[in-house]
Design a protein that fits this description.
The protein is mainly α. Helix content is 50%, strand content 6%. It has helices at 27-32, 52-55, 62-78, 96-105, 110-114, 117-125, 132-146, 160-177, 224-232, 249-262, 266-272, 278-304, 307-336; strands at 14-19, 45-50, 87-90, 152-154, 185-187. The strands form two sheets. It has a three-stranded parallel β-sheet with strand order 1-2-3. α4 packs parallel to α13 (307-336), α9 packs antiparallel against α12 and α10 crosses α12 (278-304). The longest helix is centred in the C-terminal third of the chain and has 30 residues, at 307-336. Bound molecules: adenosine-5'-tetraphosphate (AQP).
Length: 341
């Protein structure tokens, strides 16, 4: 009897994202990006990397960068990424990223790089070191994503512009040479779900790992007492009414954070704290965050106690990543006309 061939299994879509080892992840990194990554491992082929090449666009102390890189790798795992389910690697361990970025540099316009908000922000913040890497950051990010034929990129709202330029670069390359690079889409959390977490000291600026004012950021390894203190001293307004609205960016930011961990929407939060002062609300937000971070902090300590295991994971991750990226890089080289080595 003739056998019916099994229906071809549909290829799983590819997810890629990365985070810079510029310090311990903030609550912003966690809510806007990292906490959304583990659930995707079930339905997608995922790659996540520690973007150390990106980190040196701002001057880093070598020993600190090495330590931060290992810690960032362990933190990704502590947040729920599993090296048996995803490819977890360190960006500089796969040279294809730098090589792919060079090619893409030549398909990216000076004008479009000049319009990047992050470049403008960082060149204002680091006025004594406006280096070419800071300017071409988006082409390296485009290479990170495009080398894996990525379909979706889960990032925070602040990265939307970089995703757009990645799509433009891929479209341009494909326009010149025919279909070569998958044009990716962004996965960005909805505004109420913490798409962009703001500094606790200046709610008009995003919360950043490298904020020189530690009171503005909550790191995901902060001790419970420190977390509570930071929330209690968060800048709000003088109205003493838990609600979002004009002039209430500080409270809206805290409501966003509370909403993420309790699942309550803004209307429910407003109702819960009706008639209560900001003190009660800030304490409740702090306690919710402490509770949410406790398992991550516990797992992180366990992982950092086994460096040999971490080393084994990142070495294996780099090999798996390079196998995939190399196929795309070879295709790109062929398309642009490089003679086969
Ligand atoms: N405040 C934020 N709210 C929501 N999402 C955020 N992300 C960063 N800050 C917030 C998301 O975190 C991911 C990793 O970011 P990154 O480390 O690659 O670069 P970044 O956006 O420049 O993060 P930082 O914390 O501000 O680092 P520094 O201070 O070194 O520049 C991204 O998906 C980002 O959207």
């Amino acid at each position: 009897m003739e056998q019916t061939p099994a229906a071809p299994r549909e290829r799983r879509k590819i997810i890629f994202s990365a985070i810079q080892p510029t310090g311990v992840f903030t609550l912003g990194n966690y809510i806007g990006a990292v906490r959304n990554w583990p659930p995707l491992q079930k339905d997608y082929d995922c790659l996540y990397c520690v973007a150390d090449l990106h980190a040196i666009t701002v001057r880093q102390d070598p020993a600190t960068l090495r330590r931060n890189t290992l810690e960032a790798y362990a933190l990704l795992m502590a947040c729920g990424l599993d090296p048996e389910k995803s490819i977890l690697f360190i960006q500089s361990h796969n040279p294809d990223h730098a090589q792919g970025a060079w090619v893409l540099n030549c398909y990216t316009q000076f004008g479009e790089l000049s319009r990047m908000t992050q470049f403008k922000d960082k060149s204002a913040r680091y006025a004594d070191n406006i280096n070419a890497g800071l300017f071409t950051y988006p082409t390296l990010m485009a290479a990170d994503i495009l080398l894996y034929q990525t379909n979706f990129v889960p990032v925070g709202e602040d990265q939307r512009q970089h995703l757009e330029i990645t799509r433009d670069i891929a479209g341009r390359f494909n326009g010149v040479y025919g279909p070569t690079l998958t044009v990716p889409e962004a996965f960005i959390p909805k505004a109420e779900k913490g798409a962009r977490i703001m500094s606790l000291q200046d709610p008009t600026r995003k919360m950043s790992k490298s904020d020189p004012n530690p009171k503005g950021l909550v790191s995901i390894l902060d001790e419970p007492g420190v977390i509570l203190k930071k929330f209690r001293s968060a800048v709000t307004d003088s109205e003493a009414r838990v609600a979002a609205g004009p002039g209430k960016e500080g409270i809206a930011n805290l409501m966003g954070i509370y909403s993420v961990f309790t699942g309550k929407d803004f209307a429910a939060i407003q109702e819960e704290f009706a008639g209560k002062g900001y003190g009660d609300f800030k304490t409740a937000v702090g306690e919710t965050v402490i509770q949410a971070l406790e398992p991550v902090q516990r797992r992180y300590k366990e992982l950092m106690a086994d460096k040999a295991y971490l080393e084994d994971c990142y070495r294996r991750g780099a090999q798996q990543a390079a196998r995939l990226s190399h196929r795309t890089l070879e295709k790109m080289y062929k398309r642009v006309g490089f003679l086969h080595a």
